[in-house]
Design goal:
By secondary structure, the protein is an alpha+beta fold. It is built from five helices and seven strands; from the N terminus they run αααβαββαββββ. The strands form two sheets. It has a five-stranded mixed beta sheet with strand order 1-2-3-5-4, covered by helices on one side. The protein has a two-stranded antiparallel ribbon with strand order 6-7. The relative contact order is 0.08. It binds adenosine-5'-triphosphate and magnesium ion. The site of magnesium ion has 5 residues, from helix 4. Magnesium ion is lined by residues 181, 184-185, 225, 227.
Length: 283
């Protein structure tokens, strides 16, 4: 009877032990499952955050691209169209041979604008900038076209011993557009007869000045159009500074200070508030 009791006790103990083991194991499995679910939730959250950040980056990219397109259209295409319109306006009343010739030239210019629009639309596909084969020649062409479409006399001064073509593509295109818009402003607002365009290089600093002898304006009171806004954003893009000086009755001078920057440079430079160069690491 004692043995029987012992056996019964032992088997009862074993059953209880088994039950306890089962309970512990199922408990563990449940905890593990919960932990797994939690982990999954956390990684879902992480993926969601990543997607959100990605979307924000894309939005930013889109906005800066939109800004660039609007700047190119305003400073490039619109400027050229205005010039052609002026020429045609002047020719409207004339029928002699030279007027016929000039109309032909205006048509030629229209074709160039078409080319420009085409190249802007190509750039949108390839995300690259217009290339200058010879920067000084391009500027000279722009000045010639501007003089043909207005009564302006433009004098261009630059150091001939400087390799203007080795300037970075960004510097060249933005500088070209700044000059284009400044000339448009002179034609539209200044009523000037003379313009001076000066390019100067002082070591790694570029100084560009566009001055006219027109009627001037109150810099603080003038309404800010797209033109001045674009100039500001282009100068900022090039790490430079700029300044408009104008005296009513005496004319206007726009000065731009830029780092002399080539495409090959490892570090990039910026012009600080004091007009001095500083090095910034490229990221
Ligand atoms: N060379 C200048 N001579 C006289 N006034 C000028 C000259 N440049 C700019 N201004 C004045 O500054 C204002 C702002 O020029 P801005 O180029 O920003 O705008 P806008 O030429 O009027 O229009 P848009 O948006 O087409 O450029 C002009 O409206 C004009 O009053
Ligand atoms: Mg303007």
């Amino acid at each position: 009877a004692r043995d029987q009791q012992l056996i019964l006790g032992i088997s009862l103990g074993l059953v209880l032990l088994g039950l306890a083991a089962i309970i512990i194991i199922t408990q563990r499995v449940r905890v593990q499952r919960l932990r797994f679910q939690q982990q999954q939730q956390e990684s879902n959250q992480e993926i969601f955050n990543l997607m959100l950040a990605q979307k924000q980056k894309m939005e930013e990219g889109k906005n800066s691209e939109k800004k660039r397109i609007s700047e190119e259209l305003h400073d490039g295409v619109l400027g050229a169209m205005n010039g052609i319109r002026m020429v045609l306006l002047g020719l409207n009343k004339k029928t002699d041979d030279s007027a016929v010739n000039m109309r032909g030239e205006a048509l030629e210019k229209l074709k160039e604008v078409q080319e420009e629009i085409r190249s802007i639309s190509h750039e949108l596909n390839h995300a690259s900038y217009r290339k200058f084969h010879n920067f000084i020649n391009s500027i000279n062409d722009l000045l010639k076209e501007t003089m043909a479409a207005s009564d302006l006399e433009i004098a261009f001064n630059y150091n001939e011993d400087v390799e203007w073509d080795s300037l970075s593509g960004d510097t060249k295109i933005n500088l070209y557009r700044i000059i284009q818009e400044s000339l448009q402003n002179i034609i539209k607002h200044a009523n000037a007869s003379k313009v001076d365009l000066d390019f100067e290089r002082l070591e790694d600093l570029l100084k560009i000045r566009i001055s006219d002898n027109g009627k001037g304006f109150d810099v603080r009171k003038a309404k800010k159009g797209i033109g001045q806004k674009n100039i500001r954003s282009r100068v900022q893009k090039l790490n430079g500074t700029w300044n408009v000086e104008s005296t009513p009755g005496e004319g206007t001078t726009i000065s731009v200070l830029l780092p002399y920057q080539t495409d090959q440079q490892e570090t990039s430079l910026l012009v600080n508030e004091a007009g001095q160069l500083e090095e910034v690491k490229k990221d």
